[in-house]
Every structure is written in structure tokens, then in C-alpha cells.
Description:
2 domains, mainly alpha
Amino acid sequence: MAAERRKRAAVLESEGKREAAVNAATGRRDAVVLAAEGERARLTAEATGMAEALASIGSALAGARGDAAAALLVARAKIAADLALATSANAKVIVSGGGSSGAADAAAVAGATLGLGRDVPVVN
């Protein structure tokens, strides 16, 4: 009788450990699934925002003042690149040639890139 009780207790303990392991694995699986769903939602929202921004940029570039919009985009990209360089640990001082402003440099690049063949207005 005592041996049978010990055997039953061992079986119950083993079943309890097995159920605990299954519950832990299920919890880990559910956490991974929830994280993946959250990442998918984040990527979807990011892609939607990017699509809306690109549509807006495309319509601005196609408009009557498309050259000014292009110059603005290039100037913003230059400012962002300058900021990234300035805040890096190994930043160097870069002097723009001819004493021209960064906006004028960006406008010149925009004009050359877009093949406009003329000066692009600088928006100050």
C-alpha cells in the first residue's frame, strides 16, 4: 500500500512537472506570436506613412514649383547628413567651398541631379 502511494505520488509529480513545462512552452510561444504581430503592425503603419509621404512628395514635385520642392528635399537631406556628421565621435570640420551657404550648395546639387540646366531657387 505504501509503495503504491509512493508510485502514485511520483506519477503525479511527474505529470505536474510535464504540465508546468508545457505551460511554460505555451507561454513562450504566445509571447513570440504577440511580438511578431506587434512588429507586423509597426511595419504596416511605417509603410503606410511612407507611402503617404511619398505620394505627397510626388505631387509636390509634379506641381508648378517642383524645382523648389526638390531643392528643399535636397537641402533637408544635406542638413540631416551634416547633423549626423557633426554629432559623430570622429567628426571633422568641413569647409564649404567659396563661402556659399549650405542651401545654395543643396540647390546646385538639386539642379544638377534633376538636369534642370538652370539655377534652382534657394528657399531661405
